[in-house]
Structures are given as C-alpha cells and as structure tokens.
C-alpha cells in the first residue's frame, strides 16, 4: 500500500486551498447542489464545462474502467489514489473522492487513506462502514465510529478544510434497517464527520428521516436510480444538501456502449451512431482549462 507523502506546496497548495474553501462553502450554504461523478479525466472536463460546481469520484466507475468488479477488493488503494489525482488535475473544480472503506479495517489505515487522497488533490472524501467481508458485511458500530473518528482527525490535520463524508452501507448489503442506519449516522456526526450519507435508502421518507436525525449537518443523497422519481427539488424539500449519482453516469455511458456493440454483433447495423456525440463536440471539451 501507499505511504502518505508531503502535501502540495506553493502554487498547487494555494489552488487546492481555494478549491477546499469553495467546497466547504457549498456545504455551508442553504442551497442544495448536485455533485456528479466523473469516471475519468475526460468526463471530469465535460462536467466542469456543463456548469457543475464540484465533482466526486465513483469507485464503480473506476473499477469498470479497469476491467474490475466494484466492491470486491479488486481495485487497490494505489489505483484509487492515482485516479483521484487524474481527476483533480483535469478540472479546476473541487474534487472529492470515493475512498470505499479506506482500504483496510484499522482506523489508522482509514486515516492514511484520507491523507493520501488529500495529497493527490482531493478536498473531500468518504469512508464507509462496509467491511468487504461477505460473512460480516458491515463493521460493528463501535469499530465503524472509531474508523470515522480517525479519518476526521487526519482530515483536521490538513492545511485546508477537507470535507469528510461518513457512509452507512446497510441498505447496499442486505440490511434494510433504518433505525440502525440513523443511529450509525448520528454517531458518525458526533465523531466529527462533516457530511452523512446512506446510499440505497428506499424512498423519500427514509431520506427525510435521515436528514432530520443528523441536522444541521448536511446529508448527501444518491440519485439516478430508476423508479424512484427523485428530483433535485424533491430531495431539497426533504432536507438534502448535496446530491450525487454514484456510478449512474458511468452506467449510462456503458449502456450506450452495450446497445451499440450489441447492435453490431447481433444485427450487423450501425444505427447507434445517430445518437452518438459528435467528434467535434467531444474534442471541444478536451482542452486545458
């Protein structure tokens, strides 16, 4: 695994501190904002030029791009940190990092992962309570809180305001227990987490319950799942401060790729190209800021 190195200095440090201040201000403001998830440098540049105000990476998007499965421990911390750096260098927006469970069970490992992400250019990042062990998929609450506390301590040591997101993964691992999820998020908030996040909540009312329980701390909600009818307006009304889409945009892109490839393989036609972005449109996004 990587060993934490020195943070940025000089002009790079000033730029990162400015991004960090902007990112913190977004969370302190009353308005709800969308923080979409690029999966490579090109999509990061597209999202910036479309007017978004911040970005966060997606572990699934990275895994798929590497030909690996997500949530199976197949992507290393080194690969994740390199990816964070690639995204951060591709955009002038604040970039947060999906750091999964911190790449190890020990609190010190989670803390080191926060430092590494920050040194790579991130101004925020998440640590989740999923263990990666199918037999015991969620860490015991006390241990999960200890891990968040260590990550918070590492974030506070940085020379800029790093936004630490604490995630409760119950609903993604077959544990649809809202009471336990809320209690974990409340404990994470008490441990110093800046933002709380429970991906996979089943409906708007569950999201509203979470927001009320941890207020006034901001809540991140996952949008983009079909059949839920969620919008920025409805999530804002439930108390959500920021909205991410996880692997949603990556899955949309791969969906278009699959439809085109299957059309060629199964029908020998190329009609998929009628809805493809043009070369000139995409090329125009890929410029240095």
Overview of this structure, please?
- It contains 11 helices and 8 strands.
- The longest helix is centred in the C-terminal third of the chain and has 20 residues, at 248-267.
- The chain is globular and about 55 Å long.
- The protein has helices at residues 10-28, 41-49, 59-65, 77-90, 107-120, 141-156, 178-190, 204-214, 232-238, 248-267, 279-285; strands spanning 33-34, 55-56, 95-98, 124-128, 163-167, 195-197, 219-222, 242-244.
- The relative contact order is 0.13.
- With 289 residues, the protein is an alpha/beta fold.
- Strand 4, helix 6 (141-156) and strand 5 (163-167) form a beta-alpha-beta unit.
- 47% of the residues lie in helices and 10% in strands.
- Helix 2 (41-49) runs parallel beside helix 4 (77-90), helix 4 (77-90) packs parallel to helix 5 and helix 7 (178-190) runs parallel beside helix 8 (204-214).
- The number of strands is 8
> Numbering strands along the chain, what is their spatial order in the largest sheet?
1-8-7-6-5-4-3-2
Principal-axes geometry comes out as globular
Radius of gyration: 19 Å
Structural class: alpha/beta
Give the % helix. 40-55%
Q: Report the uncertain regions.
A: none
The end-to-end distance, rounded to whole angstroms, is 32 Å
Average residue pLDDT: 96
Beta strand %? 5-15%
How many alpha or pi helices?
11
What assembly state would you assign to the polypeptide chains in this entry? single chain
Q: SSE order in H/E notation?
A: HEHEHHEHEHEHEHEHEHH
* Largest sheet composition: 8 strands, parallel
Essential attributes:
single chain; 289 residues; alpha/beta; eight-stranded parallel beta sheet; 11 helices; globular
